[in-house]
Specification:
Layout lengths: L7 H10 L21 H4 L14 E7 L5 H12 L5 E6 L17 E6 L4 H5 L4 H13 L4 E5 L19 H17 L5 E5 L26 E7 L6 H12 L5 E7 L7 H15 L3 E9 L15 H11 L7
Parallel strand pairs: 1-2, 1-8, 2-3, 3-4, 4-5, 5-6, 6-7, 7-8
């Protein structure tokens, strides 16, 4: 999100309401043509949710006014002529540990964005039971799951960000690694770990750079990023820093993205730019649209069908082979 535009509060309110140990991969670019993913990356990348070179998974968080998730999925299928490859859901930190997600199609990858808590509640062992319970439930689903815990940690709008934890990113890393170990101990080998900073840091100071929060290659399967065009940012501006920093080490997922309108034709044009950017960026293995018109406290409509022109642009993107992962 663009924290300078004051958009964090409204989206945070929305998300609050919404309810295998991976190897450290060593890659080489020897013999790799420019713009291609190294052959050594193709076999191991992504952990339980495999990265497929040249094929990005396309999915969404769906929350459409007046429709259930099942109805929303059906609508998008009719409009796009295809199913969502990823279905994104938000879980609160505690009090909700589902045993199944029957409204998520069996052939879709479930992506769970799991809220966090302060670092010391995890690193001190006080949250071990909460973590173990979630690990057991997700393992029991017996389906590939992308788990994005404690996202946008380089912002200043969540309980698990550095600003609310003494400006000590090392605490985030310790918390992440402890959770990772507990998940492994409880057999959650179907869970791929997604580390997902915001595209820009708030505050934008040295201690809060996203690199300081990275848990380490052995603890991350996918690197994600959140980015919206709130201030007319291009896809390149939003996503290139993360791609440049991690694209040769981990597959990249645009874990939260969407366009808002800045006037006639602007939303459709941005979608076309996004499509072109992903086509030119082989490290991107998934794109997850924040597909909703129910954001409280804001007039933003993130839906890709907010106009016929916008839907046409999104449909064209969705039908490209690059988005057939």
């Amino acid at each position: 999100m663009d924290i300078e535009r004051g958009t964090g509060l409204a989206r945070r309110q929305l998300l609050t309401l919404a309810l295998a140990v991976p190897a450290a991969y060593s890659l080489t670019r020897a013999g790799t043509a420019p713009g291609q993913v190294p052959v050594s990356a193709t076999a191991a990348w992504g952990g339980p949710v495999r990265f497929r070179p040249g094929r990005a998974m396309l999915g969404s968080y769906l929350s459409l006014h007046g429709r259930t998730l099942t109805q929303s999925l059906a609508l998008r299928h009719r409009q796009l002529g295809r199913d969502q490859r990823i279905v994104h859901k938000y879980y609160p930190w505690s009090g909700y540990t589902p045993a199944a997600e029957p409204d998520v199609p069996a052939d879709a990858v479930l992506m769970v964005s799991w809220h966090g808590t302060t670092y010391h509640r995890i690193t001190g062992g006080g949250s071990d039971r909460t973590i173990a319970a979630m690990a057991t439930r997700l393992a029991g689903m017996k389906r590939p799951i992308l788990l994005r815990w404690g996202w946008e940690m380089n912002g200043n709008w969540f309980a698990w960000d550095g600003t609310h934890n003494g400006r000590k990113p090392a605490g985030y890393i310790k918390a992440w690694q402890r959770m990772h170990r507990i998940f492994h101990q409880h057999g959650a080998t179907n869970v791929a770990w997604v580390w997902g900073p915001n595209w820009n840091s708030g505050p934008n100071v040295s201690w809060n750079k996203f690199q300081h929060y990275y848990p380490g290659d052995a603890y991350v399967d996918w690197v994600g990023v959140s980015g919206y065009n709130f201030a007319r940012e291009s896809p390149k501006k939003l996503f290139s820093p993360i791609v440049k920093a991690y694209g040769k080490r981990k597959p990249i997922i645009l874990a939260e993205t969407a366009a808002v309108s800045h006037g006639p034709h602007t939303k459709a044009r941005w979608i076309k730019k996004l499509s072109a950017y992903v086509v030119k960026t082989p490290w991107i293995g998934a794109v997850v649209w924040f597909d909703t018109d129910t954001q409280k406290g804001a007039a933003h409509n993130f839906r890709p069908d907010s106009s016929a022109e916008t839907l046409a642009a999104y449909r064209k993107m969705a039908r490209k082979s690059r988005f057939s992962g």
